[in-house]
């Protein structure tokens, strides 16, 4: 459960509506999508990115998607970015589309959090050239 007393909690409420919400724990979410240059697997944060419906348009959403391949979508002033340790998304409507890891999930509240030191990833860190060229 999420505490509701704003004086004793570090939770921050961000009200929608939103055109787009992306939450990831790593910089690249596929071989051709750089979601957040700043993210690393061991930084202890999720990257929360969102576009507010009342401050942007579908054109802004299209512009965002065309810049995902090079990570430049976060440079747009209508894309908001926050590092978070946990999140909870509560839809205001009774129906719509929600996906987790590209899979459609039942429409309703979704929450997640970083669980430090629960898993280990082993591998070589890429060089700057490999990140920029891939």
UniProtKB/TrEMBL annotation:
GO biological process annotation, one example: sphingosine biosynthetic process
GO molecular function: lipid kinase activity
InterPro entries with a match to the protein in the record: Lipid_Phosphate_FormReg (IPR050187), NAD/diacylglycerol_kinase_sf (IPR016064), YegS/DAGK_C (IPR045540)
One Pfam family here: YegS_C
Origin: domain of life: Eukaryota
CC annotations in GO: cytoplasm; membrane
Domain YegS/DAGK C-terminal: 38-118
Annotated protein name in UniProt: YegS/DAGK C-terminal domain-containing protein
Organism for this UniProt entry: Rotaria socialis
């Amino acid at each position: 459960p999420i505490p509701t007393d704003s004086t004793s909690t570090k939770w921050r409420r961000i009200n929608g509506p939103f055109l787009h919400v992306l939450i990831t724990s790593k910089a690249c979410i596929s071989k051709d999508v750089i979601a957040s240059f700043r993210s690393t697997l061991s930084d202890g944060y999720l990257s929360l990115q969102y576009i507010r419906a009342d401050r942007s348009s579908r054109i802004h959403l299209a512009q965002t998607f065309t810049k995902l391949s090079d990570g430049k979508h976060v440079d747009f002033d209508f894309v908001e970015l926050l590092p978070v340790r946990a999140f909870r998304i509560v839809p205001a409507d009774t129906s719509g589309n929600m996906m987790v890891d590209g899979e459609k999930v039942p429409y309703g509240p979704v929450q997640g959090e970083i669980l430090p030191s629960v898993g280990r990833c082993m591998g070589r860190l890429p060089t700057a050239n490999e990140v920029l060229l891939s």
